[in-house]
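Input chain follows. Return structure tokens only.
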Amino acid sequence: MRILEPTPSAYSYPLLIKHLLPTARAQAARQEIVYADRTRYDYRTLRRRISRLASGLSKCGVKPDDTVAVMDWDSHRYLECFFAVPMMGAVLHTINIRLSPEQILYSINHAEDDVILVHADFVPLLEQIVDRIERKPKFIFLTDDADAANVPIDIIADYEQLLDSGDEDYDFQDFDENTRATTFYTTGTTGNPKGVYYSHRQLVIHTLGVMSGLGTAGCHARFHRDDVYMPITPMFHVHAWGIPYIATVMGVKQVYPGRYDPQALLALIEREGVTFSHCVPTILHMLLSHPAAEDTDLSGWKVVIGGAALPRSLAEKAMALGIDIFGGYGLSETCPVLTLAQLDADMLQADSGEQLTIRCKAGRPLPLVDLRVVDENMEDIPHDGHATGEVVVRAPWLTQAYLKDADASQQLWRGGYLHTGDIGNIDADGYLKVTDRIKDVIKSGGEWISSLTLEDIVSQHPNVSEVAAIGVPDEKWGERPMLLVVLNSDLENAVSEDEIKTLVQAQADKGVVSPWAVPDRIQFVEAIEKTSVGKIDKNRLREKYS
């Protein structure tokens, strides 16, 4: 094998986050970055603010390999940190502000944060744990109110003052592309959260891979330069699925909403002309159920749903409003995007029912993604849309380990593939459908029952707003399915347990689910517990109802 030797004077061009910026500055310098109804500036200003932030942090003592953490709502500040901190050679720790104080304390100590940028809204939370932070980090204050009250923790600088002190010509040096760029913590429901981290190389390749998958689509499910982007996935969660990096490379108009409020989000979509977003199903359900949605034009809005399976009823409601909705799939450990449920041109000519079937799947793998569904011996399962196995994957952007956890890392990567913990099948057209998490499958009388399929069946009842299916212990059968159901509040006629059981039985009679799937217990509740990123918290539900 012949290895090519570069000319000594040639530039090797390491894959660094700083190289994602020049295209937008050259091609879309006057395009806008918008923060709620508070801030609006162009890409030239973004580049200057990134430099000033890095310069200001450097003056505060931040060095390569230090860790800078952020506690903020989705904002232009967060976008600036996505670039400035790793471009310095430091590590960006995006703190999950929805974790418990003890879990946040654990993540701060485990990540060894040197500096924490904290929004005024989260100062009371920090007050509860600041005396137990081991590394004694420096605090930088973020606020949307110029007249904010005195802060009870020791602040070394205000964010805007820090930028004012910085140099807009800060020199970002080259370094090894395998340098760690980011760290964040999974929303684990048992034990402490796990630290997941990514290098510059992984983030750049993920940006290019997902951009090619979204940008080369035909006439739907496409993200292009004329779009207006707004995330509805928290920026602390897997870099908002990495889409802010893609939006910046393309130079699109970006809108950051701040704290999530349904009415404010809908107003931003309409006022700023938002055409591309991504979120978990519960967030979209919240938006479409809000009274303001009836008066908001959502036609032409493209929405990727991930983090949980896209319910057919939610997809149907979205399509009726003119929303181009489609599923995607990934994990915190996969940076995260692996697949997208984009339809081919001929599929778009099919009736809405056939389209919904595809749109609600996880989708087909992106370029560079080697995704398999395997049995317990790591042998491939037939691609017939029925046979199921565990989803395992390789791609150049997957996390290579959990931070400071060798045993869990080895388990994650056993057999040379990353094990997702998801069960699924692949059809003849290459579309992956995730049928459940391994830990959420209901095992009853020797049958494996998909909790996601049960939820999808019941959610299609017009009087059902939300549903969660869990397995609860049973002395005879091991486990039996239990349904937790939230009804539409504006309906006069309640749904009976027998009506829901009949609905499931009808699908069992058709062979869609096993007869064992007909639930013994149905409980009507006002709300279903969610994780910090809006997914149904099934571990918590099992503990509560077992």
